[in-house]
Amino acid sequence: MTHTRTRLERGRNALGPALELVHTGRAPTRAVLTTALGVTRATAGAVASELQTLGLITVDSRPGGATGSHGRPSHRLAIDPGGPVALAAQVHADGFRAALVGLGGHLHATTPACTTVAADPKEILGQVVAAGADLLRETGRHCVGAGLAVPSAVAEPEGTALNPLHLAWPAGAPVRDLFNDCLAEAGVDAPGYCGNDVNLAALAEHRHGAGQGAAHLLCVATGHRGVGGALVLDGRLHSGSAGLALEVGHLTVDPAGRPCHCGSRGCLDVETDPLALLEAAGRTPGPEGSLLDQTRELLRTEYATDPAVRGAAHAVIDRLGLGLAGLVNILNPDRIILGGLHRWLLEADPDRLRGLIEAGSLWGRSGTVPLAACTLDYNSLVGAAELAWQPVLDDPLAALPA
């Protein structure tokens, strides 16, 4: 026992990095963990054992090797399916969604609600937190924290929603404080964090989805309304001096285009979002389902057969390609991922969008632009959970109850 504790004390600083490696799927075995951490096999074993004791991971009791592998078999590491969770919440133009998200970005439970979002942010935040609290009671899971994704830049360190353009909320609403108040009122004894929905989607995709391995990841995506962007540099969100960086939705792509909420005209936000596609196709938004769901169904069922839908999609793709080419020239990312409607436009006509970016960017003219679709369902929710998991990833022993 003494030897084990001594090894663990030497490896305590490795607990967080070890957990992050398992969390992001980069350490499937103890042998890989040992190499990645640069520690001895004994120290890696003690670290893995402690993470298992904390209820965060499982360690296969019988080592095994993958088919075709060489060398000594190693114990397999995995996220504990019965471990703690984060409460994740998202508010968007059509309502909200709450979920419980474990390590590894695994969704254990989720509950949607489409509703009219009140002008008082406290009202909708109270509803989404209540839904999440119900999930916690139903599952009996321990909650490490709570994260909230909102369709607005979130100013730091204040935690205020600076520009909730597609909601009736007042500019500068103190959403993080309100979120924590709602958690306390619902009996959820956990800290609350808040971030922009596309920033959080990019973080989730970088750790668990289409952005894994990218050093300079650019994410551009539509929400239920509007367009957002995010940049992940060496695993960290680039948020600027006050949390407001990468408001790509307000990049002009048509100076004579639609008026934008920001005061300009022809921004990506109003030229390439779900409402823009519906209007270009001559379709009136229906009462059932979100605008995002309606555009996905339109592309799935009518893109190949209806010239008006195909022409509308091409017009939106052309505006998006112009904007992405400009961003490539400015940011020089090593990967671009697209979410929401932009993901489905890429899937509908990948050659058109890639060609426009390559023709309009210096980098594109000298090589292939690495462009991919986001792969995670509910990536903003998963990203919101990442905010809540971060203190655990930083120091598991300090963040979890003894």
TrEMBL record:
<dbReference type="InterPro" id="IPR036388">
    <property type="entry name" value="WH-like_DNA-bd_sf"/>
</dbReference>
<protein>
    <submittedName>
        <fullName>Sugar kinase of the NBD/HSP70 family, may contain an N-terminal HTH domain</fullName>
    </submittedName>
</protein>
<dbReference type="Pfam" id="PF00480">
    <property type="entry name" value="ROK"/>
</dbReference>
<dbReference type="InterPro" id="IPR000600">
    <property type="entry name" value="ROK"/>
</dbReference>
<comment type="similarity">
    <text>Belongs to the ROK (NagC/XylR) family.</text>
</comment>
<keyword id="KW-0418">Kinase</keyword>
<dbReference type="GO" id="GO:0016301">
    <property type="term" value="F:kinase activity"/>
</dbReference>
<keyword id="KW-0808">Transferase</keyword>
<dbReference type="InterPro" id="IPR043129">
    <property type="entry name" value="ATPase_NBD"/>
</dbReference>
